[in-house]
């Protein structure tokens, strides 16, 4: 049974059909997407936290490395296929070409299935070499590759159809299932890669509930597919060099250090990355929204949505990640405890890296949607940034340890996010110079606050006071953009 039109938000309801529907506003869609990603983020966070606090630091390092390997391999086409769904299926539906949308969905899905199988085959030897694990553990990592790849593909199709409510509800449901499974395994005394099985089950359940219908009998021949395959190939390279770059940093820590250091790095990432869920959610809604705007020839809406997204990201993420950096010592002590004290030195660096990455999201989305030339630009930027980061790792990581790995990641993302922002400012005439200078000033203030904390020798109350002052000051400075962005999002259909 399938459904169209007034979409059923319930994950256990009829499967979604590739057909036109009612799309949420950018604000509502982003809010719902945040709810779903918060659920998924909670599953990832609690997986790391529960493993780290119950099983121990070495075990969380092993689990994090396994997840990083699986995530990296799932980026080899399947995740980018989901982005292609968001772009091309949404564009075809926006132009009223339902048959073309279904044909494209069938084609993209077929390529993603094949790619997921290849990634799973690679996962087994990759885990045995990098994680020094068993064949059985390698098979679990292979299943995780398939599950994560399927999740990315299916979620992209839901957003292409405007089914944000269903995506969010499915995220919540499957996250609860995953957490229940994790608790049961920990209670049973399970350790190591076995603790990723709940992630496998949760993501496969998401895929099973939301696999798109209406493509089985789609025409084998549809719109030209060269643009689609080129987009997926270029996006795959760019995603590997951006999202995959973060996962690679975890693998580098494990290969240049030991499970203890990998556990510390994983603990820092666990605290730094949840704040970026908002931007991830916005980008999932922004891609099809921008695609539809271009599909109907509404260039002003395309430009205004890009500007609103950039200002919203800067306003929220500087406040969130700057506060996180200033509160690093307190958060590490509360969340992870005494065994992770040095993680507080990693967290400000990783917070800045995540901030820089998120500042490029609106520009990357706009360039990827606008044209093939834009996709090439973002791909070149991503590859360039990753090469810069790898160079820093080669030179500094053997002696500098986890801090050097974090610094290399920061150097790389500065390049990969900076290039798209500059290109969009020049090509699209976006006036972000003042905004970026304000962001730079806020980063310097947060950095100064961290230095004062480290040199004063005072207790945690100083950290809390400085963090509160930073957050209050930042949102006071940005109050105009807060109102502007809220108004733009409310008026976005």
TrEMBL record:
Its main subcellular localisation, reduced to a broad class, is: membrane
Where does it reside? Answer: Cell membrane
Q: How does it sit in the membrane?
A: Multi-pass membrane protein
The name this protein goes by in its record: Uncharacterized protein
Write down the species. Ornithinibacter aureus
Alphabetized InterPro entries for the sequence: Poly_Biosynth_Transport
Residue ranges of the TM segments = 31-51, 63-84, 104-127, 139-161, 168-187, 193-211, 231-253, 265-291, 312-337, 349-367, 374-396, 402-423, 435-452, 458-477
What keywords appear on the UniProt entry? Cell membrane, Membrane, Transmembrane, Transmembrane helix
């Amino acid at each position: 049974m399938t459904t169209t039109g007034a979409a059923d938000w319930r994950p256990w309801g009829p499967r979604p059909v590739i057909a036109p529907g009612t799309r949420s506003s950018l604000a509502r869609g982003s809010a719902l997407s945040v709810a779903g990603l918060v659920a998924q983020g909670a599953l990832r966070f609690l997986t790391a936290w529960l493993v780290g606090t119950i099983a121990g630091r070495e075990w969380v390092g092993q689990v994090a490395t396994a997840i990083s390997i699986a995530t990296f391999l799932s980026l080899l086409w399947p995740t980018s296929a989901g982005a292609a769904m968001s772009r091309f299926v949404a564009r075809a539906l926006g132009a009223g070409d339902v048959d073309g949308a279904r044909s494209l969905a069938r084609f993209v899905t077929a390529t993603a299935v094949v790619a997921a199988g290849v990634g799973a085959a690679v996962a087994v030897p990759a885990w045995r070499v990098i994680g020094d694990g068993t064949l059985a553990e390698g098979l679990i990592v292979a299943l995780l590759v398939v599950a994560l790849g399927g999740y990315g593909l299916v979620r992209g199709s839901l957003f292409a159809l405007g089914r944000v409510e269903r995506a969010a509800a499915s995220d919540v449901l499957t996250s609860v299932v995953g957490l229940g499974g994790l608790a049961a395994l920990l209670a049973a005394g399970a350790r190591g890669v076995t603790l990723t099985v709940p992630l496998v089950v949760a993501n496969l359940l998401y895929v099973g509930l939301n696999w798109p219908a209406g493509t089985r009998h789609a025409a084998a021949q549809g719109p030209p597919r060269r643009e689609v395959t080129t987009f997926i190939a270029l996006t795959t390279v760019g995603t590997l060099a951006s999202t995959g770059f973060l996962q690679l940093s975890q693998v580098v820590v494990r290969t240049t250090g030991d499970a203890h250091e990998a556990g510390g790095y994983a603990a820092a990432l666990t605290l730094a990355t949840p704040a970026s869920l908002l931007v991830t959610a916005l980008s999932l809604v922004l891609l099809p929204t921008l695609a539809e705007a271009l599909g109907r020839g509404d260039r002003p809406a395309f430009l205004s949505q890009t500007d609103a997204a950039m200002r919203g990201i800067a306003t929220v993420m500087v406040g969130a990640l700057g506060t996180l950096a200033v509160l690093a010592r307190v958060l590490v002590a509360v969340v992870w405890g005494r065994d992770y004290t040095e993680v507080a030195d990693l967290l400000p660096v990783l917070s800045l890296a995540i901030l820089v990455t998120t500042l490029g999201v609106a520009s990357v989305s706009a360039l990827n949607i606008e044209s093939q030339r834009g996709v090439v630009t973002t791909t070149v930027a991503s590859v360039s940034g990753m090469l810069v980061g790898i160079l820093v790792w080669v030179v500094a990581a053997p002696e500098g340890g986890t801090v050097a790995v974090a610094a290399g990641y920061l150097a790389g993302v500065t390049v990969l996010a900076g290039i798209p922002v500059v290109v969009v400012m020049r090509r699209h005439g976006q006036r972000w110079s003042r905004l970026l200078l304000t962001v730079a000033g806020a980063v310097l203030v947060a950095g100064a606050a961290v230095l004062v904390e480290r040199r004063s020798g005072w207790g945690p109350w100083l950290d809390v006071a400085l963090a509160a002052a930073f957050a209050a000051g930042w949102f006071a400075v940005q109050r105009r953009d807060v109102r502007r962005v809220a108004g733009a999002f409310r008026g976005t259909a």
